[in-house]
Design a protein that fits this description.
The complex is a heterodimer of chains A (240) and B (200). Chain A has 240 residues and is α/β, with parallel strands linked by helices. Chain A has four helices and eleven strands, in the order βββββαββαββαβαβ. Chain A has helices at residues 87-95, 129-141, 192-195, 211-223, and strands spanning 13-27, 30-37, 48-54, 60-66, 76-81, 101-108, 120-125, 148-154, 171-175, 205-209, 231-235. In chain A, helix 4 links the parallel strand 10 (205-209) and strand 11. Chain B has one domain: Oxidoreductase, molybdopterin-binding domain (Sulfite Oxidase, Chain A, domain 2, Alpha-Beta Complex). Helix content of chain B is 8%, strand content 30%. Chain B is built from three helices and eleven strands. Chain B is globular. The chains are: A alpha/beta (240), B mainly beta (200).
């Protein structure tokens, strides 16, 4: 089986300092950090970077975060969900502000990368929208917004990342716990009925979210006839 | 390296933790990039080919007739969690290689999975009793999301080297990057040297 096609990606660059030039509260539990890097940091939408915090005694901790901004846009943006007891995410949320410095390396990852050259379906759960947002923004920037169909599952409107940009053709929002007033679909987990209208034969599906979300969506896609080799999965774990 | 204002050392009194890792406790996060496959042990196989004198293919039943072998200890994921006090059962890769007979020029292996996943390792990292094909963990069948029915187990290296849903090993005289290695992950992946990415 040689079906796991890798999109050509730039080389992994060495560690470089990044200055925080903006912080935005994305949802009550997530912040987007804008990072200015002086060295090269080109990437393909969907790839991630490693963010490292270093103490003055050399102790360090690092975590992987998907780029949420599209390739070529400055500053680079990553969205960080605050994980309970997460060493890196709690520090970023509680202590890091404009002017602070972190180390960045990347880009990393090739299986979950898309160069906006062919139509795809994206299915995002919760914080798993970040790499798919980079893809959506890249498609829009390239004038190819019709190449990306995106289904987003969020617990509630308050917990939906990038809400201002998630509208227009090809975007479907699914709420699992609380929906906006007058929402015709109501609340509930993603079902085959939500995906059936957007699945297209031969079109790759990029799925990102928690492991449970990814497995559930994979099974739904399978039930709709999408072959395994057309499904790319990025599982966001509790990595802190 | 840039020092981040206000960031300080977390208490890391556990000497079992390699640098940059944390203890995930009872949790066992899942990390894999492909859809979880459903494999049938009735048709499942494991094979060794490449630079060997006697290429071999084993069925599920064949492997269960091999001498059992156990690993007790930790696993370390590149995404920075470590998990301790695990018990894995399966068969030693050593015993399988003995039957296949590696040729003298074999120096590296490419581990393959039934999903198409690949990962490369030095041959020396899967010999000497350091690697297993494992199918039970902590007394239970290996769950499919963790690579069941059987996965490669190379616990002294970062866990992406322990290919889930393993289908075999190909012995080679040269190193060649596997799937994640082509995307920037390290060719060897020693957690104690923090070899996470190419260049580490």
């Amino acid at each position: 089986m040689d079906r796991l096609v890798i999109t050509p990606v730039p080389p992994v660059r060495p560690w470089q300092p990044a200055t925080v030039v903006g912080v935005r509260q994305e949802t009550p539990n997530a912040k987007t950090f804008q990072l200015r890097l002086d060295g090269p940091h080109d990437f393909v939408a969907g790839q991630h970077f490693i963010l490292r915090l270093t103490a003055d005694d050399g102790y360090h901790a690092q975590r992987a975060y998907s780029a949420a901004s599209p390739p070529g846009q400055e500053p680079l943006e990553v969205t960080v969900e605050r994980m309970p007891d997460g060493e890196v995410s709690t520090f970023l949320h509680d202590a890091v502000d404009v002017g602070d410095t972190v180390d960045i390396r990347g880009p990393i990852g090739g299986h979950f990368a898309w160069d906006a050259s062919t139509p795809i379906l994206g299915v995002a759960g919760g914080s798993g929208i970040a790499p798919l947002m980079s893809m959506l923004r890249a498609a829009r920037a390239a004038g190819r917004s019709e190449y990306m169909t995106l289904v987003v599952s969020a617990r509630s409107p308050q917990e939906l990342y990038y809400a201002d940009e998630l509208n227009g053709r090809g975007i479907r929002l699914v709420y699992t716990r609380k929906a906006p007033e007058g929402n015709a679909r109501g609340v509930g987990r993603l079902t085959a009925d939500d995906l059936a209208p957007v699945v297209a034969v031969g079109q790759p599906a990029f799925v990102c979210g928690s492991p449970a979300f990814c497995d559930a969506v994979t099974m739904l896609l399978d039930s709709l006839g999408v072959p395994a080799h057309d499904i790319r999965v990025e599982r966001f774990g509790p990595s802190g | 390296m840039a020092i981040t204002r206000g960031f300080t050392r977390r208490d890391r009194s556990d000497p079992r933790l390699p640098p940059g890792q944390y203890n995930t406790g009872d949790a066992w996060p899942v990390l894999s990039y492909e859809p979880t496959p459903r494999l049938d042990t009735a048709t499942w196989t494991f094979s060794i080919d490449g630079l060997v004198d006697r290429p071999q293919t084993w069925s599920w039943a064949d492997l269960h007739r091999m001498p059992p072998s156990t690993y007790e200890g930790a696993i370390h994921c590149v995404t920075t969690w470590s998990k301790f006090d695990m018990t894995w059962n399966g068969v030693s890769v050593n015993a399988l290689l003995d039957l296949a007979g590696p040729r003298p020029d074999a120096a590296f292996v490419m581990a393959r999975s039934h999903t198409g996943y690949t990962t490369n390792l030095p041959l020396a990292d899967v010999t000497g009793g350091k690697a297993w094909v494992a199918w039970t963990v902590d007394g239970k069948s290996l769950p499919v999301e963790h690579g069941g029915p059987a996965r490669l187990l190379v616990p002294h290296l970062y866990f992406w080297k322990s290919a889930k849903w393993v289908s075999g090993l190909t012995l080679m005289d040269h190193d060649e990057p596997g799937l994640w290695e082509r995307s920037g992950y390290h060719d060897r992946g020693d957690p104690w040297l923090e070899q996470r990415y190419q260049g580490d």
